[in-house]
């Protein structure tokens, strides 16, 4: 493991040398690639060098303690040795985490689809709560939310809504949100104060780049349709909405949020690429015999992942058995305590397969 870490450190030094070359500065594509690689390995290099510095200092203190005749200096050297020795396991744990294979999609934008499930109008209202929650969470993290399409109900809920979350690290924060979200509360339409249970399904996909998914134009059927929704002065005045059909898979995408037909088509293509990329990843996963599927990271859309209990102010994530009584702040976008716990649990699962830091 140390040999691998040294290789990473050496690679970092070579990148630094290349970046100081005027010829590299003039090559924008190469410069961007090197800067991205440097940024990715910098935390590992810094931690490795800290580890080696502490390990070397501990060895020097041990040698001094064994060779020193002055009792006071010997005691000082021994104390320094034991202090540094205790720090090494902590640094080893941090290095093991940094050496875990990084999800290549972590920095990508995210396509999110929320659909009302069982529960009728109350499920549609809950879908609206989830959209608002994700929008506020995105705002807290500096992400941008763009609605692609929506089917709004009369009371302000959504039968379904699709949107793109843009920003560095968006996938890393949203990737565990896929699945069935259950809500328990007294509906606004309930006159007897009875608690109802309803649900909404969330699908989360990493946005795919053009180079990752090639789409043959002949495989597409593109139709212009009139916008539909909850009204507005521009609704139905132009046929700017787009229905995009991918004939080989039967995937249908509708985009109606923009007044520009070109913008709607562009967003519909982003959604299609994300869906095809997701299908490609799932096929690859199925082909890998004996591949471990993390319970936290499965993203199974049929799996009940979280319950929002409004009477008790409770939110429970069933995958990691975490319950917090902070539901009000959670649905107002303060989701980090749960998302951080999911990331930690996933990291712990993957660390079980890792080795030591030894030579």
Features:
359 residues, alpha+beta, Methane Monooxygenase Hydroxylase, Chain G, domain 1, Alpha-Beta Plaits, Double Stranded RNA Binding Domain, 3 domains, 3-stranded antiparallel beta sheet, 11 strands, flat
Question: Tell me about the biggest sheet?
Answer: 8 strands, mixed
* Number of separate domains: 3
The count of β-strands is 11
The fold-level CATH name of the largest domain is Alpha-Beta Plaits
Rg over CA atoms, rounded to whole Å, is 26 Å
- Share of helix among residues? 40-55%
Overall 3D geometry? flat
Count of helix runs:
9
Rounded average pLDDT: 84
Alpha-beta classification: alpha+beta
Q: Unreliable runs, pLDDT <50, ≥5 residues?
A: 229-237, 287-301
Strand numbers in spatial order across the main sheet: 2-3-1-5-4-9-10-11
Overall CATH class of the largest domain: Alpha Beta
The CATH architecture of the largest domain would be 2-Layer Sandwich
Kindly report how far apart the N and C termini lie.
Answer: 6 Å
Element-level helix/strand string: HHHHEHEEHEEEEEHEEEHH
Task: Report the β-strand fraction as a percent range.
Answer: 15-25%
What's this entry about, in short?
The protein is of the alpha+beta class and 359 residues long.
């Amino acid at each position: 493991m140390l040999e691998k870490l040294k290789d990473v450190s050496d690679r970092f030094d070579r990148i630094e040398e290349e970046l100081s070359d005027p010829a590299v500065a003039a090559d924008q594509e190469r410069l961007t690639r090197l800067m991205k690689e440097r940024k990715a390995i910098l935390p590992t290099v810094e931690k490795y060098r800290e580890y080696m510095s502490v390990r070397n200092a501990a060895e020097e203190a041990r040698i001094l303690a064994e060779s020193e005749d002055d009792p006071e200096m010997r005691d000082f050297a021994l104390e320094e040795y034991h202090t540094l020795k205790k720090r090494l396991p902590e640094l080893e744990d941090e290095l093991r985490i940094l050496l875990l294979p990084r999800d290549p999609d972590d920095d990508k934008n995210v396509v999110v689809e929320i659909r009302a499930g069982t529960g009728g109008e109350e499920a549609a209202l809950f879908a609206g709560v989830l959209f608002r929650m994700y929008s506020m969470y995105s705002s807290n993290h500096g992400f941008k939310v763009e609605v692609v399409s929506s089917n709004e109900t009369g009371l302000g809920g959504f039968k379904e809504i699709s949107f793109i979350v843009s920003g560095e690290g968006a996938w890393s924060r949203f990737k565990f949100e896929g699945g069935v979200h259950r809500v328990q509360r007294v509906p606004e339409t309930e006159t007897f104060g009875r608690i109802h249970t309803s649900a909404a399904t969330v699908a989360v996909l990493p946005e795919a780049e053009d180079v990752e998914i090639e789409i043959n134009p002949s495989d597409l059927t593109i139709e212009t349709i009139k916008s539909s929704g909850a009204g507005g002065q521009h609704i139905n005045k132009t046929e700017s909405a787009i229905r995009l059909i991918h004939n080989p898979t039967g995937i249908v995408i509708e985009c109606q949020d923009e007044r520009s037909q070109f913008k709607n088509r562009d967003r519909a293509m982003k959604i299609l690429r994300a869906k095809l990329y997701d299908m490609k990843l799932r096929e690859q996963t199925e082909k890998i015999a004996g591949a471990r599927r993390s319970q936290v990271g499965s993203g199974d859309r049929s799996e009940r992942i979280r319950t929002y209990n409004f009477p008790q102010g409770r939110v429970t994530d069933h995958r990691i058995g975490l319950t917090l009584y902070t539901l009000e702040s959670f649905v107002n976008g303060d989701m980090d305590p749960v998302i951080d716990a999911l990331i930690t649990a996933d990291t712990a699962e993957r660390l079980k397969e890792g080795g030591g830091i030894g030579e």
